[in-house]
TrEMBL record:
This is Ribosomal-protein-alanine N-acetyltransferase. Keywords: Acyltransferase, Transferase. The lineage of its organism: Bacteria, Bacillati, Actinomycetota, Actinomycetes, Micromonosporales. Pfam families: Acetyltransf_1 (PF00583). The keyword Acyltransferase applies. InterPro entries: AcTrfase_RimI/Ard1, Acyl_CoA_acyltransferase, GNAT_dom, MshD_Acetyltransferase.
């Protein structure tokens, strides 16, 4: 990573800052402001990644339940991709799941998003199913991936 990245709590005032990233990355399938507001109001765990100037580089969210956690989203601005921001966000989500002693973490990823699938596989996520036509309006399938393991593991081989 070239410049320092800061992870902090995703707050309501970040919603307007992430919407252009959503639009660019997800087009017609982007989350609406109301969807972000609902996630925050529901108390789900969200983080935002910023550079030293406070520019939003990416964001990620996690829903923690008693026996499992679901990655709701991980998104990184195109000009900040391949700099470790997504990896940092994923590690932060996995650490939060571990703080809750949750061993099973699941996510859905577009079946045609090979780079994201590769990242998740690096952290022990394995495909367990397909949700046909999950992403609308493109009708793209979602690959369901699951990671089961020691909640203290972070997926790296340090």
């Amino acid at each position: 990573m070239s410049a320092p990245v800061r992870l902090s709590r995703f707050r309501w005032w970040h919603v307007d800052e992430v919407l252009p990233i959503e639009a660019d990355l997800f087009g017609a399938e982007q989350w609406s402001p109301a969807m972000f507001w609902n996630e925050l109001a529901s108390g789900h765990w969200y983080r935002i990644a910023t550079d030293v100037d406070g520019t939003v580089l990416g964001y990620a969210g996690l829903t923690v339940q008693p026996d499992e956690a679901w990655v709701q989203n991980i998104a990184v601005r195109r000009d900040a991709q391949r700099r470790g921001v997504g990896r940092m966000l994923l590690e932060e989500l996995l650490a939060e799941a571990a703080r809750h002693d949750v061993r099973t973490v699941l996510l859905e990823v577009a079946a045609d998003n090979a780079p994201a699938q590769k990242l998740y596989a690096t952290y022990g996520f394995e495909p367990i199913g397909v949700r046909r036509g999950y992403y609308q309006p493109s009708n793209t399938d979602a690959l369901v991936m699951r990671r089961v393991g020691d909640p203290t593991e972070d997926g790296t081989d340090d």
